[in-house]
Amino acid sequence: MTQQPEESQQIELRLVVIDPTSMRILTTSATAGGPLLPRISIPAATRLAAVLVKAIEERYGLQTIQLALLPETKEKSHCAVHEITRQFETGSTPSPFLTIGEFNDVELSEAERAVVLQIMSGQPNELGRFARLGWIDELLSRIGIDRSQNPEPVIHQLNQGLDFCLLNLKDAGGRNLWFKAVGEPNTREYQLTLELTRRFPQYLPRLVATISEWNGWVAESVEGVPLNESASLGDCKQALTALATMQQATTRDADSLLALGAKDWTYARIASLSEPFFEDARPAMKAQTSTRSKPLTDIELDELQSDVGTTLREFMEPDIPDTLVHGDIGHGNIIATADGPVFLDWAETYIGHPFLCAEHLLADLARSHPTFAKEQAHLRSFYVDHWRTCARAKDLETIAALAPVVAAFVYALVAWEANQHRTNPNAAWPLVRSMLRRTKRELDNASEVIR
């Protein structure tokens, strides 16, 4: 149930691209004031590391990984620090490299220079465990990849942050691997991924190595088609069956996943957040400036709050146990393979009502292909069939009818709650408005079931 992002602003970044052999830094040109660092402008709302790595390769013929993003100041733009891992033959004159001392304080401030020197020497610093030259060689050594091989391993980094990294590795032997490491506040993903892989090896990527001190793991790449790019009802049914299988196996000890850091989205937590959520929804509606859709009035919100409360109780009342919920199950996080579905990216692992997860998946697939949109009712019924031993047929009929209502509401609630701890908690307001309107529409559609 994703929203379309607003058009991103462009930001300019200075680049400190380090040759780990010579300990020199890439420069592009010199002015009367001294040499200049390369600069690249990119959209602000993007994975900076992935865009910068690609731009550096295209512009300079250098394969790099991002080590750190230096803080922005009033005087200077962001500065990204990269390590060269491979140099390609481009046929053009290579760009010059200079020592860090040859850049003046206008181009690289004294504070920035001190941090870059820490990164180059491998000293601990406030930018995390991956803000140092050479850590990539440690990783490659742990998984048996030799940098001296010809051809060298191909490394594509997708994301980087404080104690966080995501990259793809392809070695000379043809192995295609993914490395991911997580830091605060997402360290729980490490233990949850290991535990879910242990429990359900057929439904998660195969692990090649784990690095506990990095909260990191290496997994085999999954060969197949993202489910949201498929048009196969068979693939979708296999995914729904696998989802129900994992969920039913987890009902016996869901508390153990909560202990590992899975988020609590049970009825009790949802109910406890509903009141403050609707209080915040009122100013959110009044702040709407778009005229494409009418904001809900205070009276409509009052009615919706009452109806949602009733719906939640009816939805949760039957004896369907709380269990495993993949909180980001769309967006290509299920791969349809020849051996069945594989579920990726368990950063958002929840414990809650199982039908929330299935409904979010169906909503995502309905947007991705008209076949899935047309077959929503059939696919929902197919998933319901997996739970017939847990509840009466009449109760399951009610749950199936109310699932789109509750799923839309909980999607808004999760986004709202996550933003309460961020710099701008109102950033979720556009999504809250949209999903509350959808909740109201779904309630109207389910009116025959609601008493």
Give a verbal description of the structure.
It is a single chain. The protein is α+β, with helices and mostly antiparallel strands. The protein has three domains: 1-128, Alpha-Beta Complex (Nucleoside Triphosphate Pyrophosphohydrolase), CATH 3.90.79; 134-221, 2-Layer Sandwich (Phosphorylase Kinase, domain 1), CATH 3.30.200.20; 225-445, Aminoglycoside 3'-phosphotransferase, Chain: A, domain 2 (Alpha-Beta Complex), CATH 3.90.1200. 41% of the residues lie in helices and 21% in strands. It is built from 13 helices and 19 strands. The strands form five sheets. Strands 1, 2, 5, 6, 7 and 8 form a six-stranded mixed sheet that branches. Strands 9-10-11-13-12 form a five-stranded antiparallel sheet. A hairpin with a 2-residue loop joins strand 17 and strand 18. Helix 9 (354-368) runs antiparallel to helix 11. The longest helix has 27 residues, at 393-419. The model is unreliable at 2-7 (pLDDT under 50).
